[in-house]
Design goal:
The chain has 85 residues and is mainly α. The protein has helices at 7-20, 30-37, 40-53, 71-75. The radius of gyration is 16 Å and the shape is elongated.
């Protein structure tokens, strides 16, 4: 069963932690990055977004966002250039 993420609650808790000076950067922790990398929900989200953009096989795709890079691998099957980290 997939869990539903309450982004509003997460945003509020993050804002509160930021104001209190106790906000940690979750990407600095190797365990958190590994869990996110294995997340089925994150992978499916990247695949849905990539499919919606309808990339042509001849296109090259560069993922330069500020996130964890869930879009790059999702474009790999659509682009002849593929994907590399």
């Amino acid at each position: 069963m997939h869990s539903i993420i309450d982004w509003n609650c997460i945003w509020k808790l993050t804002l509160l932690a930021s104001r209190q000076g106790s906000l940690e950067n979750g990407y600095d922790k190797e365990e958190a990055a590994e869990r996110y990398d294995l997340s089925e929900i994150a992978r499916q989200d990247g695949e849905r977004r990539a499919a919606a953009l309808e990339v042509e096989p001849s296109w090259s795709v560069l993922d330069i966002g500020a996130g964890p890079g869930t879009l790059g691998p999702a474009f790999s099957p659509q682009s002849e250039a593929g994907y590399s980290r």
